[in-house]
Each structure stands twice: as structure tokens, then as C-alpha cells.
């Protein structure tokens, strides 16, 4: 009797900045299908996010329906997955799975938000014929906090609360599924043994061809890692709250199912702490002063047609953390649209100085320089944008046009 081949979806869970992107790409290179419509690489993920844009957008809208955002560590509330406004996203989620993965029998799906919305996606994947297996990425939480401070201007307390929520919810919601905990350090040091063991534990085939192994070796570059701390650094720190240390110690044991009682206790304490800290269903205040929140507010105001208030909020984002290049770019484009050209020039130059590898920054600057009548400089900026992204047709067309101007 012929057995029906199982369709398997590996969900890569874990906190933002915990190595989920690298893990997803390795699994993809080993033969598992990734999504078609991927988020573009960026300053803090130069090798790619490996996240499906449609799935990320659905997750953001579900979180918004729950009065949460990606940066709010507060639990979503009891039985959130049964709410009608969450269930309303079901058809869209199933359509996204179908369009992003076609009929692939083995797929890998990654978005840190999945850790908190796992029940919703298990149901959507099952409806499309997929069995869910979970890999939970683990990284030193202080390394995550350092990374989020650089990328988003996030405080250590905020980052640790967010890490705690992601790990507790990923562990809880993945119970009863084939799952494994996988360390970021272990992937970097010995991906073959680490992935081989984890994939075997979840019953997922993992036999990359020689060419795939070469590609994985080339992809896993330790130079992309910006922070490395001793394993016991969090345990020895006097300024780290005990609940974070307890969760870290439990995760360090490596066995999820054997530590179910410890995880249950950690989850009960976590829920009780949030009930005391931020009672009721409303969002917590943690994301309110995050620079990215000011940018989100600025974008909303821009969409509403309130350009001046949009610029005001964009300025707040830059003032909150002047080291984030994308926030300078956002402010610069708003100033350009409002014909505040000299200031826009200075702000866009700052964005480029902070991160010169981003083609969009050079393209925006080229358009501004053209408006200012500085055609030679505009051509140079357009050339840089086109060189950084040779496959971007818009950048190539613009370069061709601006080179032809004045001939």
C-alpha cells in the first residue's frame, strides 16, 4: 500500500534578532521552499530577513486588532485566537500560504511574530494540508538586547520583556507539536550537527547536497554577528531581574518537554506580573517612546494628508535615536515632498553616511539633487543606487533618464 507523502511546514520561532533569519536561510538552502515575496535585506539584516511580506503584514494586522504591535511585550489576552476579528484573517492567511509556496510539500516559514500568533497559523497551515513542525531559535538575551538597542533604540528592560514574551509563548503554543530548541551559537559553530539533530528531532528530512553545503558555508559568516557574550553573563548580572534569569536557565537546559512544569510556573508568573504591570486589555506603554513608533505615527499622518505633523513625528524619531539611518531617510523624503530642499539634502546625506550600502537612500538623494539643479551630483548618486541594486528596474531607468538629460 502506497503511503501518502506528508506536506510539512517548519515554523521558525523565536525572538527578533535571535538568528531566525540565518536558520531559515540554511533550511531553505538545504532544500525547503521559502516564500516567494520576501522582505528586502536591510542594514541590520544584510543577508536577508527571509520573511514573507504577505505573512508579516497579516501578523501585524492581527496584532493591531489585538491592540498590540511587534514591540509590545504584553500578552494578547485570554483566548485571543477565538476572537471573531482574528478569525476574520483566516481566508487571507490561507490564500497567502497558497500564493507564497504554491504546491511545495516542504516549506519553511519565518516571522518572529509567529511565536505569539502560533495557534492561528497552525490552523491555517492545516487547512492547506500542512503538518506543522517547530524550531525555536535561542540566543543570549543580552546579545538580543544589544542588537535591538543598535537597530531600534530599544532599552534593555524593554528588549528583555519582549524576549521573555516570545520565548514563553513559543514554548507554550508549540506543545504537542514536533519541536526542538536550537541555539544561534551552535548553528554558527557546527550547523551540520546542530541542524541534523534538530531536524531529526522534529521528523523533518535534512540531507543537503554537496552544492547546498557549500552555499550554507558561504552564507553563515560569523562576521555578521555583532555581539558575543559569555553564556553566564546574564546570570552574573546584578541588574537583571530574576524572572529573566530563571527563563534563561530553563532554556539552557535544552529540553522543552522535560521542563514543562518549570515553563508552566514561569508562564503563570509572567501572566501575573503583566496583570499587575498593565491591567486590562489595552496595549502597554513600552512601545510608545520607541523611535520606530514615532515613524509609524509619522507614516499614518502622512497617509492622512497631514504633512507638517508627519514631519514633526519624523523629527522625534531622529531625535530619539540619531544613529538609525532609515529614520533619517524617512524624514528626508518628507522634507523633499514639502519642498524643504536644503534641510532634506542634509538629512539624506546623514542617512547615507550612516549606511552607504542602501540603494534607496542614494536614489532619493539623486532625485533631490536633480530638483536642486545639481545634475552632476544627481547623476553620481543615481549611479551609486543602480550599482548597489543592478536588478532594480526603477533605479536603472532613472539612471538612464538622468544621464540623457542635458545631452
From TrEMBL:
Enumerate the TPR repeat regions by residue range: 325-358
Q: Which PROSITE patterns match?
A: TPR
UniProt keywords (A-Z) are:
TPR repeat
Top-rank lineage group of the source organism: Bacteria
> SMART domains of this UniProt entry?
TPR
Pfam families to which the protein is assigned, alphabetical = TPR_19
Specify whether Transmembrane is a keyword of the entry: no
Q: Where, by residue number, does the polypeptide cross the bilayer? A: none
What name has this protein been given in UniProt?
Answer: Tetratricopeptide repeat protein
Q: What is the lineage of its organism?
A: Bacteria, Pseudomonadati, Pseudomonadota, Alphaproteobacteria, Sphingomonadales
Amino acid at each position: 500500500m502506497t503511503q501518502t507523502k506528508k506536506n510539512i511546514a517548519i515554523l521558525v520561532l523565536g525572538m527578533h534578532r535571535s538568528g531566525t533569519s540565518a536558520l531559515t536561510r540554511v533550511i531553505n538552502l538545504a532544500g525547503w521552499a521559502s516564500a516567494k515575496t520576501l522582505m528586502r535585506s536591510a542594514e541590520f539584516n544584510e543577508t536577508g530577513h527571509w520573511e514573507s511580506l504577505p505573512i508579516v503584514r497579516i501578523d501585524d494586522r492581527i496584532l493591531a486588532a489585538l491592540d498590540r504591535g511587534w514591540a509590545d511585550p504584553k500578552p494578547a489576552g485570554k483566548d485571543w485566537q477565538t476572537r471573531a476579528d482574528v478569525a476574520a484573517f483566516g481566508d487571507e492567511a490561507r490564500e497567502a500560504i497558497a500564493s507564497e509556496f504554491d504546491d511545495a510539500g516542504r516549506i519553511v516559514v519565518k516571522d518572529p511574530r509567529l511565536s505569539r500568533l502560533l495557534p492561528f497559523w497552525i490552523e491555517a497551515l492545516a487547512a492547506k494540508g500542512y503538518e506543522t513542525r517547530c524550531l525555536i531559535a535561542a540566543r543570549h538575551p543580552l546579545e538580543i538586547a544589544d542588537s535591538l538597542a543598535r537597530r531600534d533604540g530599544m532599552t534593555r528592560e524593554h528588549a528583555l520583556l519582549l524576549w521573555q514574551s516570545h520565548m514563553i509563548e513559543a514554548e507554550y503554543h508549540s506543545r504537542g507539536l514536533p519541536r526542538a530548541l536550537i541555539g544561534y551559537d551552535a548553528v554558527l559553530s557546527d550547523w551540520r550537527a546542530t541542524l541534523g539533530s534538530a531536524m531529526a528531532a522534529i521528523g523533518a528530512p535534512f540531507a543537503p547536497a554537496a552544492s547546498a553545503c557549500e552555499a550554507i558555508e558561504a552564507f553563515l559568516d560569523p562576521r555578521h554577528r555583532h555581539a558575543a557574550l559569555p553564556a553566564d553573563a546574564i546570570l552574573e548580572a546584578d541588574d537583571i531581574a530574576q524572572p529573566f534569569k530563571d527563563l534563561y536557565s530553563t532554556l539552557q537546559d535544552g529540553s522543552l518537554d522535560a521542563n514543562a512544569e518549570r515553563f508552566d510556573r514561569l508562564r503563570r508568573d509572567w501572566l501575573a506580573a503583566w496583570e499587575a504591570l498593565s491591567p486590562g486589555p489595552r496595549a502597554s506603554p513600552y512601545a510608545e517612546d520607541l523611535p520606530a513608533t514615532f515613524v509609524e505615527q509619522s507614516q499614518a499622518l502622512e497617509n492622512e494628508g497631514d504633512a507638517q505633523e508627519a514631519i514633526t513625528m519624523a523629527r522625534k524619531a531622529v531625535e530619539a535615536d540619531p544613529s538609525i539611518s532609515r529614520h533619517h531617510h524617512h524624514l528626508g523624503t518628507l522634507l523633499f515632498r514639502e519642498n524643504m530642499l536644503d534641510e532634506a539634502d542634509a538629512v539624506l546625506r546623514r542617512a547615507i553616511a550612516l549606511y552607504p550600502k542602501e540603494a534607496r537612500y542614494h536614489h532619493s538623494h539623486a532625485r533631490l539633487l536633480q530638483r536642486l539643479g545639481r545634475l552632476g551630483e544627481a547623476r553620481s548618486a543615481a549611479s551609486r543606487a543602480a550599482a548597489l541594486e543592478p536588478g532594480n528596474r526603477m533605479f536603472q531607468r532613472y539612471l538612464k533618464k538622468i544621464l540623457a538629460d542635458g545631452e
